[in-house]
Structures are given as C-alpha cells and as structure tokens.
C-alpha cells in the first residue's frame, strides 16, 4: 500500500483504493452514510463543496476505513492540500495587492504630471510678463539695445598705404556729372559720357559727389573703390 500513499492529493488516494476494492460511490455512501455529492467532492479535491474541516476529517476516516486505505495518510494529504491552497491564495492576494499599489502609484504620478503641465502652460500663455518696477533706480534698468548705425552710401575703403601721391582713375560707364575736391582745396566739375576717363592726383584725399551712382568705376592707386547706390542716385564719397 505504500505505493498508493505517494499520490499527491487525498481525493486521488481514496479514489484509488475505492477502485481497487471495486466499490462504487453509491456503495461507499451506503456504508459510510456520507452523501454521494460529498464523496465525489472529496475525490475531486473540491473543498468548496465540502462542509467545515472537522466534518471532512471524520468523512476521510470513514471513507478510508470503508475502502481499506490508511486514514492517517489520507488525513496528512488532506492537511497538506489545505496548506498548499492557503499558500497559493496568499500569494495571489499579495500579487493583487502589489498590482493595486502599482496602479494607484501610476495613477497618482499621472495626475501630478497633468497638474504640473496645466500650471506650466497656464503660466506661459495667460500670465503676461510683468512691467519693470518703477521703484528701481535708473542705473539698475537695462538700457535699450543700440540701433545699428545706418550704412552710408560709400563703403569704407580698406586702409591704403599713403605714398607721396594718390592717383585716382575714373571711368564713365553711364552718363553722369561729377564734382571732385582734391586735398580739400581744388574743386573740379565734370560732365562725363560713357567710356570717358579721368586721372587725378592728390596727396591727402578726394571728396567726390556723383550724380549717378552706377555711372562710374573708380580706382585709387589701381585698387577698385566700391560705390553704393542705384541708377540715378546722387552719392558722396571721401577717398581714402
């Protein structure tokens, strides 16, 4: 019989002895006075269909005696099965509790994050920037950004090593008039047509007034001088 006692549940253990004794459930019920549905529940290890534990222990002893099984072995298997089910139930409850805590934590984090985002965007879109405090001393206020200086018509000429003489070459590409002051003294006026040329010499500088900004090409000591302006625009240059 020891090999039969190795079964994992008391229900299988008792059922094996009943079948070995060639007894039906009804026959065992008639002999033990235990209802057939209780005997079937015991063999199926269905604790939910059985009465409280003290009654079940009495049923197991009566069943074991009727089929020739060892009642102590059957009771030990029954108690072991109860402990296993209790542990399984506790583990399931612990897992459910952990999942519940995790869900609540995630929900709380989501709510806090949503509130922070709402507050952030409310500050960005609804709260205007406060005006400067008039009580601050004048020196503590930042000055307004400086306005970039307007570009003059003439491009500043790259520094030129001044030699004894400055040579200015003027080539007309369109009809224009030209007024030149050499070294701040000699004033000369010209009415130039396309392809006409002038060559002037000085020692300090040339002041030019051109009647057509696109009408001339100018070279100082063979270096081109940039002229800013549009066709027909009057511009002034000081070279260098």
Any overview of this molecule?
With 240 residues, this protein is of the alpha+beta class. It has 2 domains: 1-127, lambda repressor-like DNA-binding domains (434 Repressor (Amino-terminal Domain)), CATH 1.10.260.40; 166-239. The protein is 41% helix and 19% strand. Strand 6 (216-220) and strand 7 (223-225) form a beta hairpin. Helix 1 runs antiparallel to helix 5 (71-126). Mean pLDDT is 83; it is low at 1-6 and 149-162.
Shape descriptor reads rod-shaped
CA-atom Rg in angstroms: 56 Å
The biggest sheet, with number of strands, parallel, antiparallel or mixed sense and barrel status, is: 4 strands, antiparallel
Q: How many independent structural domains?
A: 2
**CATH-assigned homologous superfamily of the largest domain:** lambda repressor-like DNA-binding domains
CATH class of the largest domain: Mainly Alpha
Q: Count of helices? A: 5
- The end-to-end span amounts to 125 Å
Task: Give the topology string: H per helix, E per strand.
Answer: HHHHHEEEEEEEE
Tags for this entry?
single chain, 434 Repressor (Amino-terminal Domain), 2 domains, 5 helices, alpha+beta, 240 residues
Q: Can you give me a brief rundown of this structure?
A:
With 240 residues, the protein is α+β, with helices and mostly antiparallel strands. It is 41% helix and 19% strand.
């Amino acid at each position: 019989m020891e090999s039969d006692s190795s079964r994992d549940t008391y229900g299988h253990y008792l059922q094996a002895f009943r079948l070995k004794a060639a007894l039906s459930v009804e026959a065992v019920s008639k002999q033990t006075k235990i209802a057939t549905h209780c005997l079937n529940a015991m063999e199926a290890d269905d604790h939910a269909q059985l009465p409280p534990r003290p009654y079940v222990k009495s049923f197991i002893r009566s069943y074991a005696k009727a089929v020739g099984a060892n009642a102590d072995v059957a009771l030990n298997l029954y108690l072991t099965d109860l402990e296993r089910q209790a542990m399984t139930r506790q583990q399931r409850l612990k897992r459910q509790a952990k999942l519940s805590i995790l869900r609540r934590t995630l929900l709380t984090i989501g709510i806090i994050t949503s509130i922070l985002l709402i507050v952030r965007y409310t500050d960005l879109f609804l709260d205007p920037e406060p005006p400067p405090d008039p009580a601050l001393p004048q020196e503590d206020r930042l000055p307004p950004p400086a306005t970039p200086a307007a570009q003059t018509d003439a491009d500043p000429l790259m520094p030129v090593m001044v030699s004894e003489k400055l040579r200015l070459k003027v080539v007309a590409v369109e009809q224009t008039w030209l007024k030149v002051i050499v070294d701040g003294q000699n004033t000369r006026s010209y009415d130039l047509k396309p392809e006409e040329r002038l060559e002037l010499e000085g020692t300090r500088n040339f002041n030019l007034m051109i009647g057509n900004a696109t009408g001339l090409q100018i070279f100082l000591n063979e270096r081109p001088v940039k002229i800013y302006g549009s066709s027909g625009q009057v511009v002034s240059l000081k070279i260098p």
